[in-house]
């Protein structure tokens, strides 16, 4: 069983930055593909970014150049640094772990508004 706990969400003005964290329990973190997904108001959940166990990253086109995903295997934690935020980035952000099974966190709200 893996538990994922997100933190770092909040209210930020357009152009601002936030860093999300996802702390994972369990020993499989090191072999898991970790990802961030988001679901905006009235929208389907969508992929934001992923990072493999070896550090290979993937980004959705909408966040390339603004968001950076990283992981610290010693801390069982994955991060999402979000810069130059826009109102379109407003969503609940979810952490996902994929190895033998898929696990989701409960999400953290990010609101971008002036």
How would you sum up the global shape? globular
* Oligomeric state of shown chains: single chain
Distance between the termini: 40 Å
The number of E-state strands comes to 11
What fraction of the residues are assigned to beta strands by DSSP? over 45%
Spell out the helices and strands N to C.
EEEEEEEEEEE
How much helicity do the residues have?
under 10%
Detail the poorly predicted runs. none
Instruction: Give the rounded overall mean pLDDT.
Output: 95
User: Structural class per helix/strand content?
Assistant: mainly beta
Note the total helix count.
Answer: 0
- CA radius of gyration is 13 Å
Task: Let me know the largest β-sheet.
Answer: 7 strands, mixed
Description:
This protein is mostly beta strands. Helix content is 0%, strand content 51%. It contains no helices and eleven strands. The protein has strands spanning 4-7, 10-12, 18-24, 33-39, 46-51, 57-59, 67-72, 77-82, 91-98, 102-104, 108-112. The strands form two sheets. Strands 2, 4, 5, 6, 9, 10 and 11 form a seven-stranded mixed sheet that branches. A hairpin with a 5-residue loop joins strand 5 (46-51) and strand 6. The chain is globular. The mean pLDDT is 95.
